[in-house]
């Protein structure tokens, strides 16, 4: 099939403000009350609608505003009138037209795959070769500046079957972080799988000393202790400690993943569609890592149900993203649900949605209720 009978007739974007149920603190920055995002709607002349979500973080990837205007002003002209099923061809044109804006590109790709899946009655996981796993174990982040509130949250989600906890460190003193880990270890079951994420919060001169002392808590991995481009320091730490080291901010793209392999600056890599600019590039990273014996983890930004559904479809179909994932924010962190049927969590695991495309339906009134700017 050279081209289908479908054509894109509309591209609209809402910049939104997600209300949050809890504060979040990380080595790289804090989130107090609400989180900016954007929701993309692509319409076709066949009546099929594809949904996408931009989940940026200004200190990490980019901004909702820049992505929304990037789509509306630079990418919409490429999409209007195009065949939505020519996903890889359209994504190449988009890559040539606008640098960066990986979250906006991820949103466009998920909307195009949503349309493609709906056109053929297949889920995105099926388009990617089928599910490798039906459920994805959830990793819940311990990131509330009120640590007692977080212990309560950890106990609550543990009672729902969650067994993976990722503690955000590096925004307090090292002594305070050690105390938090001690308290968490004694609160949770001895079998709890604990990970530690510095979000770039340490400086290379004493990072190794601090990270080494954290090994006493037997974390499954220690994540991104130093800044994004301090690859040499990452490599030195990876060699020096017994605990696997995970790269998150240090690996956005497949080219970064090749550098990770060459310099061996990580043993684990956080794979996020918002960093890579979509599912195809995220799976390139997973493949490069797999060839080098590096294992993947399903990271997220602050994602609502649309982006989480896209990530879940990808993780379910990608064997090397094997250390769990974070698809709980739409259920437990965001104060508004934009899906008519929320993503399901059962026994501490995300259930991969059934149904064609993303496998979710969007409540347009809910989107309007948190919209702060609309580009049509
Ligand atoms: Mg991280």
TrEMBL record:
Pfam families (alphabetical): MR_MLE_C, MR_MLE_N
InterPro entries (alphabetical): Enolase-like_C_sf (IPR036849), Enolase-like_N (IPR029017), Enolase_C-like (IPR029065), Mandel_Rmase/mucon_lact_enz_CS (IPR018110), Mandelate_racemase_C (IPR013342), Mandelate_racemase_N_dom (IPR013341)
Keyword Transferase among UniProt keywords: no
Record keywords, A-Z: Isomerase, Metal-binding
Keyword Isomerase: yes
The Mandelate racemase/muconate lactonizing enzyme C-terminal domain, residue ranges: 147-244
Annotated PROSITE patterns: MR_MLE_2
Family: Belongs to the mandelate racemase/muconate lactonizing enzyme family.
Protein name: Cycloisomerase
Species in which this protein is naturally found: Plastoroseomonas hellenica
Lineage, uppermost ranks: Bacteria, Pseudomonadati, Pseudomonadota, Alphaproteobacteria, Acetobacterales
